[in-house]
Amino acid sequence: MISTQYLIDVQLHPDKQPDFSAYPFCLPAVRHLGKLAFDPAVTFIVGENGSGKSTLLEGLAIALGFNAEGGSKNFGFSTHASHSCLHEFLRIARGVRMPQDGFFLRAESFFNVATQVERLGVSGYGEKSLHEQSHGESFMALLQNRFRGKGLYILDEPEAALSPQRQLSALARIHQLVQAGSQFVIATHSPILMAYPEASIYVCSDQGIRQRAYEDTEHYEVMHDFMANPRRMLKTLLETPKEP
Ligand SMILES: Nc1ncnc2c1ncn2[C@@H]1O[C@H](COP(=O)(O)OP(=O)(O)OP(=O)(O)O)[C@@H](O)[C@H]1O
Ligand SMILES: [Mg+2]
Questions:
Q1: Which pTM was predicted?
Q2: pLDDT tens profile 38-56
Q3: Closest C-alpha among 196, 183, 186, 124 to residue 152
Q4: CATH top-level class for 7-238?
């Protein structure tokens, strides 16, 4: 059967010779990328701070033609060029369908995207200016109004602005968009978002990048154990060692 997904997989280009001693190729998640197969609906990239999630997402997004600072493909602006050269070394297998919509969200540059949206007078973001909404409100406006379906959406820590309740709303909206023929690649620390049913979860670590079941991730385990008995965990965590 011919796949209907937009992104099939990504790997380091076998014909190129990156310098594995320098950033970004020295990161285990990049060096040992192997062939990362995308889920037709939602793929999560998770892992500790500094494990390389944003580096990977950014390389992927730039290789696909998105602006390095985030936004749609028609956003051509640059406040500072800090992206790595990873995109030049990626080989991406794409499906036969082309996405009709797309967005690359970098958590830290959402402000720039909002500014650009206003400068271009782009419609589809809701009634209120994105700058006049809170961080969470403007992100939800983006998700509700701007993402239209049949799209490829690459999101870096979309939960950063969202309350737990709004993360659940975001999950519901992601599901609607998936049903409307969209594909997502999401870097996240959120055990709520990661719970999306049947999603592929890849964990970046010192060993490289491995696929894991939701319940086998550290995010799930830590959150589960903490919520099951916060007092017990805090007691262990905050107990001051007795003087000998
Ligand atoms: N331009 C750069 N030059 C050199 N090293 C960099 C550069 N950008 C990031 N790094 C390093 O690469 C590593 C991975 O960074 P990255 O931002 O991809 O991590 P991350 O998994 O997204 O972390 P977080 O969860 O904190 O967002 C970090 O150790 C970081 O210091
Ligand atoms: Mg990051």
A1: 0.89
A2: 999 999 999 999 999 999 9
A3: 183
A4: alpha beta
23 lines ligand 1 (CB under 6 A): yes
Q: How far is the CA of 157 from the centre of ligand 2 (A)?
A: 7
**Tokens in use for 173?**
């909206």
Q: Give the residue, by CA position, lying nearest to ligand 1 atom 5.
A: 23
For 78-94, what is each residue's pLDDT tens digit? Answer: 544 567 899 999 999 99
DSSP string, 32-57: T---EEPPSSEEEEEESTTSSHHHHH
Provide the phi-psi class of 57: left if phi over 0, else alpha when psi is between -120 and 50, else beta. Answer: alpha
Spatial strand order in the sheet of 7-12: 36-37, 7-12, 90-94
Q: How do 200-205 and 208-212 pair as beta strands?
A: antiparallel
Contact between residue 188 and residue 157 where contact means Cβ atoms under 8 Å apart: yes
